[in-house]
Description:
By secondary structure, the protein is α+β, with helices and mostly antiparallel strands. It has 2 domains: 6-72 and 107-182 and 280-365, FAD/NAD(P)-binding domain (3-Layer(bba) Sandwich); 185-277, D-Amino Acid Oxidase, Chain A, domain 2 (2-Layer Sandwich). It is 31% helix and 28% strand. The longest helix is centred in the C-terminal third of the chain and has 27 residues, at 334-360. The chain is globular. The site of flavin-adenine dinucleotide has 37 residues, from helix 1, strand 3, strand 17 and helix 8.
Amino acid sequence: MTQQPESYDVAIVGARIGGAVLAALLGDAGHRVLLVDRASFPSDAISTHFFRGSGLAGVLGELGLLDEIDATGAPRLSSEYLYTDGRAEPTVTDPQDPGSLGYNLSVRRLALDALLVRRATRSASVRLRERSVVTDLVRDDGRVVGVRIGDEVVRARWVVGADGQGSLIARLVDAPIQERHDPIRALFYVYLTGFEAPAAGAGATPDGPEFSFRGDELAYVFPSDAGVTCVAVSVSRDAFHQVRAGGLEAFGACIGRHRGLADRYRSATVVSRLLGQGPQPSTVRVPAGPGWALVGDSGMRQDPWTGEGMDSAARSARVLAEELDAQLRGRLAADAVIGRYHAARDAQGLDNFHATVEGGRDLRTLG
Length: 367
Ligand SMILES: Cc1cc2nc3c(=O)[nH]c(=O)nc-3n(C[C@H](O)[C@H](O)[C@H](O)COP(=O)(O)OP(=O)(O)OC[C@H]3O[C@@H](n4cnc5c(N)ncnc54)[C@H](O)[C@@H]3O)c2cc1C
């Protein structure tokens, strides 16, 4: 007797921000979801991790995760410290886009992604498969009807690519490129312990990220979970090669030129190697077609200098969850999901995407 393939309402490829948020929302609504990732959680990702109350932090609140976030030790970021022209003294402002939550957050991906995956699998209807690589799609009469994990076929009414900037699913469905912009910037970062909060004295709890502009360069301080601080710098494409060649020393020299951060950087202890990513194109793809959809970076990948990617991934997962829920309950035709999700994804994400692309060409032009 041949075994019937496993079958789900939705198979989601990629279990981080876009995938895990979508799985949690669909699982809460009672839909049968397969969540697949080649990684095993906890698992780190190359990414700093500043996000906003109006975006991912708000979604974490809706998922009931804020107590668990507090328990990681990540401070609530209810202010911001802005240094212009590499000055020593900051202007203190309200947090950017804190939504009704009223604050922003920075939680390392090792902790954050594992927490999201755990939350998704709280629903009995969500099955997680780690260390599993999706290698191909299954099609029937032009519609995507499942995935292949090695030799195994898994059928699903919808297949969602939440598989990041190099998305295999986007390539397999040949998702049309809606916009593509040349690589503009690179971002480097390290983790430190003992990085003091600005002007608040030793041992004070940090209450905001720091942003230091200097020429076409932006340095960041993100007070994060477990008492660790992430310090980062976004540099132009040209400066990227110098920092990469010079490694941690060149990074330290770069931060040393930001007078508001320099002394505290020198007094703290670097506890990681130099991490980061070189210049990559910014791309928007058409995010849905017959039987498939894309959330997060697979559908809209932007330069990280504005730290919008995780917020955008969470928002796109939320709007896709609404459309798929309506369709799976029979309230919406399958074809209608495609146009509706495309419009909603663009409405929530394109303005920020364009601001990131335009502003990132030269930070000196920002008002
Ligand atoms: C250096 C850097 C700094 C950044 N800083 C910030 C920041 O401060 N704030 C912010 O909001 N954003 C930031 N971003 C952007 C952010 O990292 C992304 O927008 C976000 O991770 C997108 O989430 P995602 O769920 O779409 O995809 P990803 O996080 O890329 O997850 C994709 C997952 O899919 C899995 N996968 C891929 N292919 C397969 C397959 N075939 N089978 C099984 N599994 C598969 C991968 O293993 C991975 O776990 C930064 C990015 C970089 C590179």
